[in-house]
Amino acid sequence: MQDSDLSAVLEIERRSYPHPWKRDHFLHELSAPHSFPFVAFDESGAVVGYLCLMSLFEEAQVLNLAVAPEQRGRGVGRLLMERAVELAREKGAGYLALEVRSSNVAAIGLYESFGFIRCGLRPCYYEGVEDAVLMEKPLQGANGCSLPQ
Question: Measuring CA to CA, which of 10, 17, 44, 126 is 20 to 30 A from 70?
Fold first, then answer.
């Protein structure tokens, strides 16, 4: 992800989330030393999705992921997750963590297909009304959840 991608990223973000990240959030990810944001392009070169990954010591975390609504169901999310897993391993992470809305069945299914396991729940995390499901994928020979269950 580069500054020049931000207009497209912000549009996808706005269309994907009820409380979207602001430009400053993405600018922070672009400049933070342990952040690794990246985008997916279609065949015409348009940004169709993005993922913000943080990796520090043994933990990597997916902070934000979205695919343009008209591109969903075409494997873009899978490609982004494949790159996130690869990058987390390159950075030496022992596990990859994320949180997802409990109602986001499609995303939970995608994450489970990558070997993520449910490790916990944050009640009323999103807007004070919807639970966040905490999920982790062991990497580099790690097993189980790092979070107490």
Answer: 126
Which amino acid is residue 14, in one-letter code?
R
Known catalytic residue: 112?
A: no
How far, in Å, CA of 88 to CA of 114, rounded?
A: 13
List b or e across 49-64, with b for residues whose CB sees 16 or more CB atoms inside 10 angstroms.
bbbbbbbeeebbbbbb
Full-model pTM: 0.91
Q: Which of 99, 112, 125, 126 is catalytic?
A: 99
Q: Are 50 and 15 in contact (CB under 8 A)?
A: no
Q: Give the fold, CATH level 3, of 3-138.
A: Aminopeptidase (3.40.630)
Active-site residue, 111 included: yes
pLDDT (tens digit per residue) in 3-60: 999 999 999 999 999 999 999 999 999 999 999 999 999 999 999 999 999 999 999 9
Domain residue ranges of the chain, discontinuous segments joined by +: 3-138
